[in-house]
Amino acid sequence: MDAPRAWVLHVDLDQFVAAVEVLRRPELAGRPVVVGGHGDPTERGVVSTASYEARAFGVRSGMPLRVAARRLPDDAVFLPVDAAEYEAVSDRVMTALRSLDAVVEVLGWDEAFLGARTDDPEALARAAQDVVLRATALHCSVGIGDTKVRAKIATEHGKPAGVFRLTEDNWSVVMGDRPTIDLWGVGTKVSRRLSALGVTTVAELAAAPVDVLVAEFGPRMGVWYHELGHGLGPTTVDDRPWVPRGYGRETTFQQNLTTPDQVRAAVRELADHVVRDVEDDGRPAVRVALKVRYAPFVTTGWSRRLPAPTRDRAALLDAMAALADRVEDREVRLLGVRAEMEMPEDADPAARTPVRGRI
């Protein structure tokens, strides 16, 4: 008999943060629930998660809380982020998944890949849903694929609380006519650049000449986007602890910063937190970056490669402070500081999990 086929499953908790909050407050079931910031929609902040009832009004993750409040009815509930609770529930989810006969690669609080050889991947998917439900009373959707890309995208077709299989066999039928932004790894900027090349659908991306994509995006990302059009990508599920590429902190100010001194002080405070993260990690940083959002809502940023990899506190703080000198004399509503880390020789995150394009 032939050996069981290798499969990749993507497990994604449905409206995870909102669902956890409803479990804590059952009286909120069926109401529009938004979790974000301090839970005050009159303050600046963004939506972390919205319940399906809130999403029906067009509320989405990343949306300013004030915009969400304008879209929602009076009975909507806004709650503050409680990271410690979400992490605790996530630990229970991942423990439950590890009880299955599968390799578990954790992607975040609310999602993971499962790798397994089986003749019935749907049965494994339903088993995953069952163990998570019994452990946490939370529902999840499961995508089944022959690559991580296809499994991840399949999950969206299974929501909520469903199972969907997406493989080479049905990729073109399911995805061919969809816009490129529906691909995991294509963001707004990349989809616009593809559109400028006459590539608007997944099928058109799959058919696009590789040399045209390479000319636009470079040798690595050009090939990557071409492969995405075919649903290709990593197939190995790796249960080693995730090695982060870097550490970042950002904050949205309730009152705009209006002077260079205020900007420098804010960057210094954020940089101090980032450097502590670098010190706790133990690896040297190789690049620092600064993100700026000017009022009313224009975002830009800069980065610089360090002369040599370093963990030296003074050197890192000075490098981040130098980026603050590039901030224009305009009102600033958000600042973010990031340090990119030197990766271990045996760690290749791109081979494990595809990432959204940064171009």
What labels describe this entry?
24% strand, single chain, 359 residues, alpha+beta, disordered C terminus, globular, five-stranded mixed sheet, 39% helix
Note down, in words, how this protein is organized.
With 359 residues, the protein is an alpha+beta fold. 39% of the residues lie in helices and 24% in strands. It has 14 helices and twelve strands. It has helices spanning 16-24, 52-55, 65-71, 83-97, 121-136, 148-158, 171-175, 188-196, 202-207, 210-217, 219-229, 260-281, 313-324, 349-352, and strands at 5-13, 33-35, 49-50, 77-79, 103-108, 111-118, 140-145, 163-166, 246-257, 285-294, 298-310, 332-341. The strands form three sheets. The chain has a five-stranded mixed sheet. It has a four-stranded antiparallel sheet with strand order 9-12-10-11, with helices on one face. Helix 6 links the parallel strand 7 and strand 8 (163-166). It starts with a strand and ends in a 7-residue tail after the last helix. The model is unreliable at 349-359 (pLDDT under 50).
